[in-house]
Protein 1
Amino acid sequence: MHAGSAVAAAATFVWLGMVLAISFLEAPLKFRAPGVTLPLGLGIGRLVFRALNACEAVLAVVVIAGLLVGRAGAGVAVAAGVAVVTLAVQVLLVRPALTRRSDQVLAGADGPRSHAHLVYVGLEVAKVVALVVTGVLLFAG
């Protein structure tokens, strides 16, 4: 395996682990912890997901750079591209809607739950699949 591909694989699996740990473990569990109110959970979530997305952006750059240096195949590039585009959609399009809704909840507003949350979760699932495929293809190549 070329060094660039090895770096891309490592960054891919670190990225995958972070998404799985935060989005599918920490996020749902924090609201079940004793004493965590909805406003407190939303505040924690904002901080955690802002940090996660920043780390994801750095890892995405590392993956892309590793793929360019390692001259990865088209399948790997497509899978990694799906993960990167998914992250961009989450950060640029979905998170602003989630922030607006959480601002309303923190201000005391009631109302229906945001569909943006379901979109974000669906994108997380797609990103996880794309990262698994990227990592597996890097190891197989």
Protein 2
Amino acid sequence: MNLERWILVGVIFVTILAIFTLIPRKRAREAWVLLLFLQVITWPAGLFVVEMGWIEYPIQLLKRTNQYNRTSLTFEFFIFPIVAIIFSLYFPNVKRLGAIIYYVCYAGFFTCIEVLLERTTRLVEYHEWTWYWTLITVIISLFLNHKYYLWYKKKLIKVKA
């Protein structure tokens, strides 16, 4: 295994560790809803971006998936949805400016990691893509996912009452 695959395995391990340490069992249903909804957003968006040739993921953890689906399965279906779960479950009760800062910090950190990986590894390659597109799409994805979560939570409270 090359360095890039070890990075993917390490990130998956850290993500699994985050699942067990940061997601309370009593909120597992909410976590599943967040995970599935974000995958509905990221799969078509990621597929579109890759098929347009704007971004490429040359190194995949599973080689066979690369011929059928050239998006990053690790990112689109696992890492980013788990980050979005943690984002929404721990969303602070703040006013508008605080929420904007929270969004920008999460998306900014995620964007910095992707840019670092793009510059130092072959895990991701930008063609007609730039860091600010990543920042914008991550913010939009987190926003849509969190709004859906708030709607779901409101409906869940009504059902329990």
Protein 3
Amino acid sequence: MKKLLSTLFTLFIVLSVSAHAVFIETSLKGTKGEPHALKIVYGEPNEHELVSKWWWYKEGMQINLTLIKPDGSTSTLATTAQGDHLSATFVPDQDGVYHVSLKRDTERKEGAKTQYQINAIATIHVGHSTLGNTASHLANELFVFTGQTSFKNKKEVSLTLFQKGIPTANTAVQIIAPSGWVKWLETDAQGVIKFIPEWKGKYYAEVSRREKVEGQSFEEYSRTSSMSFAVN
């Protein structure tokens, strides 16, 4: 019993703050023919640092987002620097599920042994079609995905972690609730985590993994990734 309680405490520990990460903030519902706004923020959900303080962003640097439409076609969205975020917009032209993806290797100092990579995903549903709601549309090397089209409070949520297109087991994923409460869950053999949300609102999933590499001028990749979903 003590071992079970210890395990549950480790996996479901409640924390007051979470680590800084890159998030794409946007409404997860869009309307065909109407502009849809996106924000790239750095910090913690609802506590964003000024762009000038982002260690991975240099003044004037262009950060591009990849827009994946429901039919699988892609386009590039350029961002504009604002006070505490980068902004972008697109206009949905078909019903279905859109994905907006950020993937970027950060600037690495000469001689540094670790290459950091930032990944972030946002999924926007337009209309009632589920066309495009597939992990195969995403080219990020690390991301959390869900095939669910809606999330209900007190009902089980299922998320899958992918690395290089393969479900990834035995990895801790951080779930950040609307209240700021944090839960850590470990993926199972199929790369899946499941939990029951306790509040309505927007949730974030965040994960990081390190990978040893050969034939590069550095020794390892350190990747982070985030996504969000809304519980009604």
Protein 4
Amino acid sequence: MTTQIDNPRAPYRRQKITRSNFEMWGWLFMRGSGVILVVLIFGHLFVNLMVGEGVSRIDFAFVGGKWTSPFWQTWDLLMLWLAMIHGTNGVRTIINDYSERHITRLILKLALYSAFILTVVLGTLVIFTFEPCPANAPADLLPSFC
């Protein structure tokens, strides 16, 4: 069995002609979201690890206190959404590049998109429905800021 290898000096021929710029917009999104994610992640790490007492103060009360502020809810929501979209787009590109059979590509993308949706929906619900001070809870179990 012989395999024919294309001439590496031959001009590039597009396999499929499309009118969509989806891949270009995906590429631009990866660059923009990467820059924004660097700012969000380093800001998150700085506030959580460097300001105040450092890593020793991170507990339920710390997270509950942060998430009482709409600013930190929005910060963490942006970080979650951008990281998940950025990562999903990257893995989608890898699946397109390395899976040879159409059915394999379809199954892998379905698993990827299912994981994306599940993580984003649950993460968003946790950020917005987190209640550190539940009603009728014993006072000795509540954080100090309640």
